[in-house]
Amino acid sequence: MASRCSSGATGPAALEKLPGSSIRVLRTVESVRRWRRPLLLDQRSVALVPTMGALHEGHLSLIRAAARANHHVVVSLYVNPAQFGVREDLASYPVTWDADAAALVRLDRELADDGHNLGRISAVFAPSTSEMYPAGFPGQEVDSKGSFVTITPLAELLEGRSRPTFFRGVATVCMKLFNIVQPERVYFGQKDVQQTVVIKTLVRDFMLPIEVVVEPTARAEDGLALSSRNVYLGTRRRRVATVLYRALQAAEAAYARGATDRAEILGAAHGLLNQVLAEQAALSAEERVLFGVDYVSLADPDTMEELPAVDPAKGGILSGAVKMLPVEAAQPGEDLGHSGGPAVRLIDNIILPPSRS
Ligand SMILES: Nc1ncnc2c1ncn2[C@@H]1O[C@H](COP(=O)(O)OP(=O)(O)OP(=O)(O)O)[C@@H](O)[C@H]1O
Ligand SMILES: CC(C)(CO)[C@@H](O)C(=O)[O-]
Ligand code: BAL
Predict the structure, then answer these.
(1) Could you tell me the distance, in angstroms and rounded to a whole number, from the CA of residue 313 to the centre of ligand 1?
(2) Short-list 322, 315, 309, CA closest to 276
(3) Its pathway (predicted)?
(4) Collapsing DSSP states into helix, strand and coil, what is residue 203?
(5) What is the ipTM of this complex?
(6) pLDDT by residue (tens digit) across 333-348?
(7) CA-230 nearest atom, ligand 1
(8) Tens of pLDDT, residues 73-125
(9) Ligand that lies nearest to the alpha carbon of residue 84, given by its number in the listed order
């Protein structure tokens, strides 16, 4: 955990820092505002990297990008209950504060040693839910009442169809984070592509003076997109978890060969998904991994509306979600993953660039 040490100042609150670093740990809105104010007057740029903790290389790549272009980087670590549906994994979502703190301290040293960065990690914002929802937490229900930011119809499509409160929760908490930190730039990962479109829409439609920077998806060697939820997979399902990325790559290859028609492009993805599912179904219950396909989409990059065909001058977004089902006939000592290996919903996407005309 973070160490608390005296600031030597007369203020009532001790200055909390991550151990062995100059990274402040800010837990209240007021403490962020107090830290932020002089930087505004000094015209120092501040970047925000919003996360829910359980940090991995994908998060670190966002922080590296933020430090290259900004004087100060704030990383928020907050598992926002409002974006979890009532039947989702809020209770078991991985919380790894000590490892996160160590990763941030290590990265900050790396940033300090590399002369190409404008800034470093200045602060971690790790608020409580009562701090983020001062009027009381409004709840996770679809019909919960409270102050929410909604971005429709975008938030109802794709991820929003499976997770009806998800983007309301994301947009609401991001609006709060942006108002608290007042960053010049915010950094998000391409892995959550619809989330990036929601955030860009939020910034545009509410006239927020913020630049949204999207960084590429960091992947494991076999192509699986890094995700905090991968810890749920366990060894058996991890071997098959690249299936979605491979399906999207098959669709990308069809586009690269000249296909623009939806049926042809998505047919390539479905072909691969069906083939892998058939291979797995033919295995014994002790070996196989079954999954369900939530959706495979070919969408407009600005609206996420489904496309009948790709306009090569504009490109498109291939995305998908699969649910890896819990393994059957678990073997004694088998690594089932975090929290006993519940069903895991994986998402991924590939951008079809507007390269051809
Ligand atoms: N593999 C990745 N590459 C680049 N950015 C990523 C990657 N995974 C997550 N991010 C980005 O990190 C930020 C924080 O995401 P979050 O804390 O939810 O992590 P996550 O791995 O996406 O977790 P989850 O498994 O809950 O989806 C988001 O902007 C997200 O898009
Ligand atoms: C942006 C975010 C931190 C909001 O809670 C979350 O949705 C995430 O981690 O992608
Ligand atoms: N990475 C987005 C956060 C979520 O799925 O809840």
Answers:
(1) 29
(2) 322
(3) Cofactor biosynthesis; (R)-pantothenate biosynthesis; (R)-pantothenate from (R)-pantoate and beta-alanine: step 1/1
(4) helix
(5) 0.98
(6) 999 999 999 999 999 9
(7) 25
(8) 999 999 999 999 999 999 999 999 999 999 999 999 999 999 999 999 999 99
(9) 3
